[in-house]
Amino acid sequence: MFKSVVRVWPKLRAYPIKICVFKRSEPKGFEMFHQESFTISTRGRGTYDVSDRVSGIVHSSGVSVGLCHVFIHHTSASLILCENADPTVRDDLERFMASQVPDGDPMFRHRSEGPDDMPAHVRTVLTHDDISIPISNARCALGTWQGLYVWEHRTHAHRRRLTVTVHGNP
User: Which of 36, 33, 60 has the alpha carbon at shortest distance from 167?
Assistant: First the structure.
């Protein structure tokens, strides 16, 4: 249902604003939250599939319809939803990113942790540190060819912590 409201700002003419009013239906069950954290060890720059680990957490949460939120606790690694059938897609993404944000670029002043550190931060900012995935039938509702990956942007091995929060109805 829409209501029309007219606002008048000082020295400006009146303009209409449409406000959408939603009715909330009663939930069929109760809403619940479930949260787990885990770490993965990377071997350096590249992508690491965490789809099965996250799906296992969703399944054990007891939520059948809702949202799964995944967050990575780092500023030099990120999360991506990407094709999982052909690994050359992820190789191509790495080549593209290397061409756009090369290691050791003299433009960067932050170099205290090595020539790959500041480019890793830029890569993370350009991608995601969190992703939300719908849950249907107690499963992550990913597309046929989608997988969830940690994208390590540093050249050396690291341990990366992820937190998975599941919210929804049983």
Answer: 33
Measured between alpha carbons, how far is 162 from 167 in angstroms, rounded to an integer?
Answer: 16
What b/e readout covers 41-70, taking b as 16+ CB neighbours within 10 angstroms? ebeebbbbbbbebbbebbeebebbbbebeb
Is pLDDT at 14 greater than 60 in this prediction? no
Note the pLDDT tens digit of each residue in 72-124: 999 999 999 999 999 999 999 999 999 999 999 999 999 889 999 999 999 99
pLDDT above 60 (res 10): no
Cβ distance 31 to 170 under 8 Å?
no
Domains and CATH numbers, the chain: 27-169 (2.60.120.460)
| Tokens read off for 89 | 């897609």
Pure H helices in 2-135: 51-61, 88-100, 117-126
pTM beyond cutoff 0.85: no
Judge whether 43 and 156 are in contact, CB under 8 Å. Answer: no
72 Cβ contact partners less than 8 Å away, ≥ 6 residues apart: 78, 79, 129, 130, 150, 160, 161, 162
